[in-house]
Amino acid sequence: MTKRWIVETNVDKTQTYPQLVEASNLIKENEVVAFPTETVYGLGANAKSDEAVEKIFKAKGRPSDNPLIVHISNEEQLDELVEEIPGSAQKLMKAYWPGPLTIIFKNKQGVLSERVTAGLDTVGIRMPDHPIALHLIEESGLPIAAPSANRSGKPSPTTAQHVLEDLEGRISGIVDGGETGVGVESTVVDCTREIPMILRPGGVTKEQLEQIAGQVLVDPSLKEGEGAPKSPGMKYAHYAPNAPLFLVEGDKKAIDELILEKQAEGLKVGVLTTEERKDDYQAECVIACGKREQLETVAHSLYETLRAFNKRDVDIIFSEVFPLEGVGLAIMNRLQKAAGYRYIKR
Ligand code: AMP
Ligand code: MG
């Protein structure tokens, strides 16, 4: 049985909420509980307990070499968890915590479960910018390990309903705080290096990081989609809808031609586009994913859109591509993974 607590999104820091007390008690008892963050829903457990963390891997079907991000609610918690806080990390924390930024630190041995770090000597930590998440962490008094609350390989959940579709009966509970905001996961930045390096693009953009920390590198393997990524999780197939997805580099005409070709073969075609063009395509299923002019809205709706194709009768999906700037870098990273890096260039 998965318990569902419905809680208003804007919980007040100074109040006690019986639902969150109950949820945090389960975390203290080493059970797993899903909760909203500003990026996507997370699946939380006591990061110090092997037993608790093992339950996350089991519920998700997550490969065991993929480390988990640890969530904290105040900076004092860091001292217990990490060896040192480099200057670059200090500046970035000041600017973007709480927020969609995970920082990789040198891990203090023997505090966190080794299942969290997957045996690495580093650990990814973030402070989520969501009142429910912060309240829950504070109430439990523990660092909470929390990957996205989806079955491994599926698009990350941006509503409680998505979580339940994947994990109902597999987890102890879910705090339902409505839809999440950013829609793509946190940016993972490695601050153990001389020059910080983005291992996973996400909610905080490269441009925003550079404003605060000066030069910031991007893991080169992300650009080509080949070579060994420095973040273990980046090598896995992820986010894929059931029908094969292709990214189309070309104008609207290129997608129109592809639609006609596939329809002539008797296939039902899906198109992932944006509000601006949703009425322009003659395909069986056209879904608008936000507005191209505001890439944040595309990020917000991306996983919901990928999940929506699974509810429709389509044999193949063509997606428009987005510029590799700002949050576009994170959007394209997720779309490339969802498409298995299949591009059509016309
Ligand atoms: P998720 O928890 O599903 O949002 O995924 C977490 C991402 O952060 C994965 O891509 C992990 O591989 C990455 N990650 C977590 N901890 C580390 C670490 N210590 N070093 C590098 N990448 C990490
Ligand atoms: Mg995930």
Describe this structure in words.
The chain is an alpha/beta fold and 346 residues long. It has helices spanning 18-28, 50-60, 76-81, 87-96, 114-117, 131-140, 160-167, 206-213, 220-224, 252-264, 295-309, 328-338, and strands spanning 3-6, 33-36, 41-46, 69-71, 101-106, 122-126, 144-145, 173-176, 187-190, 197-200, 217-218, 245-249, 269-273, 285-288, 316-319, 343-345. The strands form two sheets. It has an eleven-stranded mixed sheet with strand order 1-8-2-3-7-4-6-5-9-10-11, sandwiched between helices. It has a five-stranded parallel sheet with strand order 14-13-15-12-16, with helices on both faces. The longest helix has 15 residues, at 295-309. The protein binds adenosine monophosphate and magnesium ion. Adenosine monophosphate (AMP) binds at residues 66-69, 104, 117, 120, 122-124, 147-148, 185, 188, 199-200, 231-234.
Strand count: 16
CATH class division of the largest domain: Alpha Beta
- Low-pLDDT residue spans: none
Question: Order of strands in the sheet with the most strands?
Answer: 1-8-2-3-7-4-6-5-9-10-11
CATH architecture of the largest domain: Alpha-Beta Complex
For this structure, the CATH topology of the largest domain is: DHBP synthase
Q: Which strand-content bin applies to the residues? A: 15-25%
pLDDT average, as an integer? 95
**Distance separating the two termini:** 50 Å
Q: From the alpha-carbon coordinates, what is the Rg to the nearest angstrom?
A: 20 Å
Q: What does the overall shape look like?
A: globular
| N-to-C SSE string, H for helix and E for strand | EHEEHEHHEHEHEHEEEHEHEHEEHEHE
What hetero molecules are in the model? adenosine monophosphate, magnesium ion
Largest sheet: 11 strands, mixed
Work out the count of structural domains.
2
